[in-house]
Specification:
The complex is a heterodimer of chains A (about 260) and B (about 220).
Chain A: H1 10-15, H2 17-29, H3 35-85, H4 93-114, H5 122-153, H6 155-163, H7 168-193, H8 201-208, H9 213-246
Helix pairs in contact in A: 2-3, 3-4, 3-5, 4-5, 4-9, 5-7, 5-9, 6-7, 7-9, 8-9
Chain B: E1 3-12, E2 15-25, E3 30-34, H1 41-47, E4 56-61, E5 64-65, H2 71-77, E6 78-81, H3 92-96, H4 105-114, H5 131-143, E7 149-153, H6 161-176, E8 180-184, H7 188-194, E9 197-202, E10 205-210, H8 216-220
Helix pairs in contact in B: 5-6
The chains are: A mainly alpha (about 260), B alpha/beta (about 220).
């Protein structure tokens, strides 16, 4: 089945600037004093997307599959910094998040390619990696935040368990469970209601591109399942590494 | 179980918490650590089960430096009860089992008897306990490990009289059975009642060390 994909032409894009002018008019009339911000946002969105489009084009054309995986690695590093910041105060939280995302994203992406669920093509790998890493970033960030909270609000309980001769891992186990639980709730919830509340990105994109809905949902089903796996692996590895960094070899909190 | 502290110092950044402490805590005795707030009493206690590492000097247990011993086994032999009682699970019985998962209900009941609580207390939810009850359960939780040394940090501060007496009785029983106790206490009368030796700390330094009736701090300080 081939489709003639209809996307806006460049003149069409320019024409849509008229809509920005409408928004500007409303903002100015209501004296919201965000006209400048709105213009900057609109320009920024255009420039950012053109840059990304050009980069993706270059990757697809010249770098191929290795380039796609390299770009995924860059995404992991950036997402690791963002998620790691949620655990500021936990030693080496950014390392933990980056390693967790690499494990979760890498495993899921490789499984999909090796099982031939998605084709091993740069134009497929890059956007799929983006979805995986974006979802995992949220899970890893939530897990780290809970780990950090556990150290402040749960310190007395952790030290009480350690004083009873429990290992660091045993003493922290209730907090590990709590961190994983919190990290996985959003992705479990969104998996439950997918299609009912939201028409997610992959499916929307395919439908816009002219693919019939029953075909589009196959992609979305795979996306939801891979997000579950990637989030679970990322949150688990991140939490375990953060936990290991929290304690020294004598089973004591480092911070 | 004799502890020897050799020139022990603890620093936290620029702050000196303990400085050049050399003292022996004798086996089979009850040693009270006294002194004003912020003198480093709790810090000293936490060195003995390695919840804290000295930044200088060393601590020996029966001649062996603590880092040479298995730390998890050490913490079971040297039981620490913190100042703030922290309950960990849903019921008293579950809490008693945190450090000893195989504890039977009979053993739990006899532990409760040791701290002066009725057998039915095992079923009580931990959420509803008073401060004194919570502190006693925390002590029983440590006693469940059958420690050879008991470290108690202000065990009876702000407790009702019945709880305080029950806890003091545990220390006396442990002493009578040949066990070792180390007790941080603001309460100079309590130190006189329970201790064979008293260590007085002042601003992180060892100010006095001797039997209770020879230590000036216990006569001058009001508790």
């Amino acid at each position: 089945m081939t489709h003639e994909v209809h996307v806006p032409s460049w003149p069409g894009v320019v024409a849509s600037l008229a809509l920005v002018a409408v928004a500007l008019g409303i903002v100015a009339r209501a004296r919201l004093r965000i006209s400048r911000e709105l213009v900057v946002a609109a320009v920024r969105a255009g420039v950012q997307l053109i840059a990304v489009g050009a980069l993706l084009l270059a990757i697809f054309k010249y770098a191929g599959l290795p380039g796609a995986f390299a770009w995924a690695a860059v995404m992991v590093v950036i997402a690791g910094q963002v998620a790691g910041r949620r655990g500021s105060g936990v030693p080496r939280s950014r390392v933990a998040a980056t390693a967790g995302l690499a494990a979760g994203g890498g495993t899921t992406l490789l499984a999909l390619v090796l099982l031939d669920v998605i084709p091993a093509q740069a134009r497929v790998v890059v956007p799929v990696a983006g979805m995986i890493i974006g979802g995992s970033m949220q899970a890893a960030g939530l897990a780290l935040r809970r780990v950090r909270d556990a150290v402040t609000s749960g310190r007395a309980a952790i030290e009480a368990r350690l004083s009873l001769g429990l290992t660091a891992r045993e003493a922290f186990a209730p907090h590990t469970r709590d961190a994983l639980h919190t990290a996985l709730l959003p992705v479990v919830d969104s998996t439950k209601v997918v299609g009912l509340i939201t028409l997610p990105g992959a499916m929307t994109g395919l439908i816009l591109g002219g693919v019939d809905p029953l075909t589009a949902i196959r992609y979305q089903i795979v996306v939801m399942y891979m997000l579950l796996a990637a989030a679970a692996i990322s949150a688990y590895v991140t939490t375990r590494l953060a936990e290991a960094a929290l304690f020294d070899e004598a089973h004591r909190l480092r911070c | 179980m004799t502890f020897v502290l050799e020139a022990v110092g603890v620093r936290h950044g620029d702050a000196v918490i303990l400085d050049g402490i050399s003292v022996t805590l004798r086996s089979g005795h009850c040693t009270a650590i006294a002194g004003p707030s912020g003198a480093g009493k709790s810090t000293l206690l936490r060195l003995l089960n390695r919840m804290l590492e000295p930044t200088s000097g060393r601590v020996l247990l029966d001649g062996t430096p603590l880092p040479a011993l298995d730390v998890l086994a050490l913490r079971r032999r040297v039981g620490l009860v913190a100042q703030q009682p922290t309950l960990l699970t849903g019921t008293v019985l579950d809490d008693l089992r945190v450090g000893r998962p195989g504890l039977t209900e009979d053993e739990a009941r006899s532990l409760l008897a040791e701290i002066g609580l009725p057998p039915a207390f095992a079923e009580r939810p931990t959420a509803g306990l008073s401060g004194g009850e919570a502190q006693r359960v925390c002590l029983a939780r440590t006693l469940a490990l059958r420690p050879e040394v008991l470290l108690l940090d202000e065990p009876t501060s702000a407790l009702d009289r019945a709880s305080a007496e029950a806890i003091e009785q545990v220390v006396k029983d442990l002493r009578a059975a040949g066990g070792t106790a180390v007790l941080v206490s603001h309460d100079t009368a309590q130190a006189r009642r329970l201790a064979d030796d008293v260590i007085v700390l002042r601003a992180g330094r060892l100010a006095e060390h001797g039997p209770p009736d020879e230590v000036a701090y216990l006569r001058t300080a009001t508790s």
